[in-house]
Structures are given as structure tokens and as C-alpha cells.
Amino acid sequence: MSHADKVNFREKLSLFSEHWSPKVIGRLNDYEMKLVKILGEFVWHTHEETDEVFIVLDGTLTIQLRDRDVVLGPYEMFTVPRGVEHCPKADEEVSALLIEPRGVINTGDAGGALTAPYESLIN
Amino acid sequence: MSHADKVNFREKLSLFSEHWSPKVIGRLNDYEMKLVKILGEFVWHTHEETDEVFIVLDGTLTIQLRDRDVVLGPYEMFTVPRGVEHCPKADEEVSALLIEPRGVINTGDAGGALTAPYESLIN
Question: How confident is the model over B45-90, as pLDDT tens digits?
């Protein structure tokens, strides 16, 4: 698929099933749009260099912050500000769109077993 | 609303009715997320300095390019590459999310009567 094709989120979501492993499905200058499936609890982590946008497509996502929870349903968006520790969780599977600069690591400063490889569903 | 609140697209869409006038509803570093309502045909224009992302929330949007049309329904996304002339149109009202760097003018190089003022629905 070239840069110049449209992206259907449902079609792209049908191409993978693993959780916590964002797939690049679009680009905007030096930013990337990624689809991710979420189930269970992630690790607490911080992106020191960038904000990170979550847009929920299906399900209910809780983004735990140290001082409160942000609960997102479909057509809801939240920007985690740079430097703010957060930990996403979902009791049932969630599909979400992430927007962030190219090269952001999903586990941020935390690293560990949930660190996902760079995977793209576009050319 | 502060940077740290979530955004519900439906709630924000209920706050305005005019067409072709994007409203900033979120930020990501030096980028902005904007909601826009679209009806009829826009002007042909180009953004020489940046790509521009369209994500359709409701309705069917046609992004006319000089060599083809890109037709987007809900949960579909298209990145108009920088420098590519385009003209959105919709026979029935469309709601869409735009993502682009702060300060992009809706009519790009074309200017004219459809050039929208900078409006934000966040603080």
C-alpha cells in the first residue's frame, strides 16, 4: 500500500490479533498513526520527549494517571502530555488509534517484556 | 477545558453547525486535532509545507485529487501528501477529524471567502 491510499481501520484491525503491539497504518510528516489492540493492564511508563494521543475506536479504555483515571469510549480522545506517567488498561478488548512522532517506543522509559517491535501495515 | 481533559467528539460536534470551519479540539506537541463539518464543495488548494490527515467520523467524504477521487466513510483515513492539490466535497453533511501542524490555513494557497478564522474549543 502506498502513502497515497486510504486506510480503513476495520480492515487493518482484521489483520492482527495480538495485544499491546501498535501497527503503523498511516503517516503525517514525521508523525505516525498506529492501530493497537489492548487487553489487560500495561506497564507504568513515561514518554519524556513527546505527547501521545489515544483515540478509542471500540471498547472502553482506562488510562491510569498517578492522580486519576481517564476513561475513554468510542469517539473519545485523550492526549497524554509529555512527561506524564501513565498506564493503560482494559477489562475487555479495546481497539485504539495512537498518534505520535515516528519512532516512539510503546513502553517509553520503562522497557521490559511488553516492548513491541516496530511493525508497519503500510509500505 | 485544560490540556488534560478527554475530548468527546460527539459533544464537541454538538457545539457548532457551520461548514468548512475547523475547530481545534486537541493538541499533540505542535500539532492540532480539529473537528470540521463539511457540506458541498470546497476550493481546490494545496498545502505546500505539510501533509494533512482526514479521518471521517460520520457521512461520506470525497477528497478530489487531480488524478482520482478518494472516497472515505466512517473509520476511514487518508493523508493528503504535502504539495498535492485537493478539493473535498460531500453531498450530505460529513463530520471529520483533521490532524495537521498548528497554524495550517484551511484554504492553503488558494485563500478566498472560505478561509476560516482560527477557532478553538479548548483553552
Answer: 999 999 999 999 999 999 999 999 999 999 999 999 999 999 999 9
In this prediction, does ipTM exceed 0.85? yes
Residue type, A52: E
Residue type, B50: T
Q: Per the structure block, which three cell numbers stand in for B95?
A: 463530520
For B13, phi and psi rounded to 5 degrees?
-65, -25
pLDDT per position as a tens digit, A1-35: 445 699 999 999 999 999 999 999 999 999 999 99
Which are the contacts of B56, defined by CB distance < 8 A and separation ≥ 6? B72, B73, B74, B75, B76, B77, B94, B95, B96
Nearest CA in chain A to B74: A8
The chain B residue lying nearest A71, using CA atoms, is: B6
Answer whether A28 touches B (CB < 8 Å): yes
Separation in Å, CA of B121 to nearest CA in chain A: 14
The per-residue DSSP string of B29-85 comes to TTEEEEEEEEEEE---B--TT--EEEEEEES-EEEEESS-EEEE-TTEEEEE-TT--
Closest by Cβ to B26, choosing from A71, A77, A100: A77
**Three cell numbers, residue A40:** 489487560
Count CB-CB contacts under 10 A for residue A55: 26
CA distance A114 to A102: 19
Cβ contact B26–A53 (<8 Å): yes
